[in-house]
Amino acid sequence: MCNIVECKALIGELSTIGDNQSSGDNNKVERICERFDYLISKWQPNPKLIESHVKYFVGAIIESVLTSAAVDGQRFTAAFALMHRLVACIGPKSVRRYLPIEVLWLPKLVEWCERQTPEDTKSWPTRAMLLLWLSMAVKTTTNLSKFDSKAETTSAQKTLVERIYALIDRYLKATDKSRDSAAVLAAYFFARPDIVDQLLNRFMSESLPQLDTSLGHVMAVAVLLKVADRKTISPFAERLLEMWAQMDTTGRELMTKWNVKLMGRSALSLMRPRIAKWRYSQGLPYNTVEDLEDDCNYSDIPEQLEVIIDSLLNALHHENTTVRSSSAKYLARLTNRLPIEMAEKVVDSVLQLCEWKDSDSSSHGCCLALAELTRRGLILTDQLPQVIDVVQKALLFDEMKGLCSIGSNVRRAACHVCWSLSHAYKTIFIKEFVHRLAPTLVCVVCFDRELNCRRAASAAIQEFVVRTHEFPHGGEVLLLTDFHALATRSHCYLDIALKLAQKPEFGDCLVQHLVDKCQHWDREVCELVAQSLGLLSTVIDMNPYLPQLLAKRASMDLNSRHGSILAIGHIIGSIGDKISPELREQMESIAVTLSDNNETYRTGIEYTIDSMDNSDTEESLQIIFESLNANTVCSQRSPQSLQPVLEVESLIEPFEGLAVKRFEANDKTPNAKNADNKCLNENSESCGVESDDFAEYLKSGNHESYSRNDDNSEEIQSLKNTKRFHF
């Protein structure tokens, strides 16, 4: 709330800015704009929170504009700069609804736009906002010819219509944000009934040759296809499709996005505006055979439809997200107007797209298309099993690419499919699929690295619980996976997962997911996985899963070795006494790999030792500690490779007394303690340092050089003959 008050105060400071170009006012304008931008950007993730204040913001900014004495003054420019920042935060649609659009504003806005200089690179927010304002004012129902006097209509002076046309033609060629506002202005201007017969043909004849080179004209025509009457624009649709077939947008992502919109809207304008009778609608019975026969009308389907759908399918695996999103929407809208036979082929083509292994882009585009098709009920019930198979894989999609992973967009889109499924289909048709998806959704909501994916899964769970009443333990899961409860990753791993693992439907799935995830590239996630496995081991038997962790310890992947060692350590620390004897024997080989000279791996070993120290099991400690004997580790190693072993030894040093105290009936005598200290001092003195500086010396890396043939040196013999621990 304090930010709202400060934003209002900043807008109020506009009245103190003069219209003259002074250094003091320049600094004040810069300070106001930067501070307002910082405050307003906090609501950009959720702009609905400030919608109730937008009306006041816009009104106060317009008041500052009216009190400005000059169109190019500092107050005038600063006011529209704040409005542009508001539009960037909450979108143009939320702002322009509060702009004054009375008839008297139209000539004044046209005059202000004409007095702007397109070459001025600093005032582009002013031009963009003025054109956006004019696009709303031009929607007035008053005939525009009434604004012109008889002298203007009979003389060489331009009329208001011609002046607006000149503004559109000028700013569609711009390269800043004023081009976007000019495209919206052109669409609403040429969609007016009194302009269609007068200037629409002229505008289209000038725009069509420029579609391949001018992004502004592509945007204007695409928006015009959206807002204009179908009868008005359909005569140009075939010509637009012919021009589209000749366009080459390779390497131009923004042009490709608007090209997809242009293509989809042109095809829709040629098809009859109807909703397919065969589509599934929740709560309604299946259509009769007569209805389906009436729906199989191919007369209004354009000849280029097959090429258009093929292009939309190809655009689903475009590398740009907005292109994939637009393709998915228009593919679903076109399918909604097709006969059932053709619609089934479209859905099958989308499902085949999921089998491509090119990149995550194709999987993401496929899930977006499935979500749009599902939301409209365009997937028949006999195709739902294939869709669910795709969704289950997509919910856990995570692939390494370089030093990080990709797939968060795929997982979120898969959650969108689940959400759409609960909205569109009756419970009787998706009951079995809800039970199949429930464990996977719980894994995503607990263990996904990205917050937006966890919350998307939570939204899907909420819809399944409320609409189907078939989600296992729906009420309790709904309370645990609240929107705000998922904000902290550690809370999801350590608290929510532990409570959900106690449910028989989720326990095994959660543990298996953690075992598969223990080789995650993110160190923080890897540690949380190990900690969560340690907690879940108190409620779930880990013996079936430990062999998988032990097998990963021998993997060539460093992350797998690191994660498995961490997980084993936390499991031992929690339930060491419940591990089967066969698995205990396999754990003896863990220490053999301790000499791998890698910092990440040694960090995992440190966590393992810490966890073992917290264990109350004598045998588990004895197995690991005895296997750390230098005779096992050092027999085939050079002195240089002993550094990790010595480092581990220095870490375990504080635990030796604890282990002796834990497993001996009586405490050691002072002489015995002195003997142990002497043994440790001998180990450190063999490296030439004092016992207190042992760990610091190992970290410094200032060791003497040895060759592989010096196994008989005094230092090596000393290390081989020294027993590390005494139980």
Task: Give a written overview of the molecule.
This protein has a domain at 507-667. 65% of the residues lie in helices and 1% in strands. It has helices at 2-12, 23-40, 51-66, 74-90, 92-96, 105-114, 124-137, 150-154, 160-171, 178-190, 193-207, 215-227, 230-246, 253-270, 289-295, 305-315, 321-335, 340-353, 360-375, 384-395, 408-424, 427-447, 451-468, 474-480, 489-501, 507-517, 523-536, 546-553, 558-575, 581-587, 599-613, 618-627, 630-633, 643-663, 670-685, 694-700, 714-721; strands spanning 399-401, 404-406. A two-stranded antiparallel ribbon has the order 1-2. The two termini are 64 Å apart. Mean pLDDT is 78; it is low at 285-293, 591-595 and 615-727.
Average pLDDT for all residues:
78
Distance between the termini: 64 Å
**Given the structure, what is the number of helices?**
37
Low-confidence stretches: 285-293, 591-595, 615-727
Organism: Medioppia subpectinata
GO biological process, one term: tubulin complex assembly
GO molecular function, one term: beta-tubulin binding
Protein name: Tubulin-folding cofactor D ARM repeats domain-containing protein
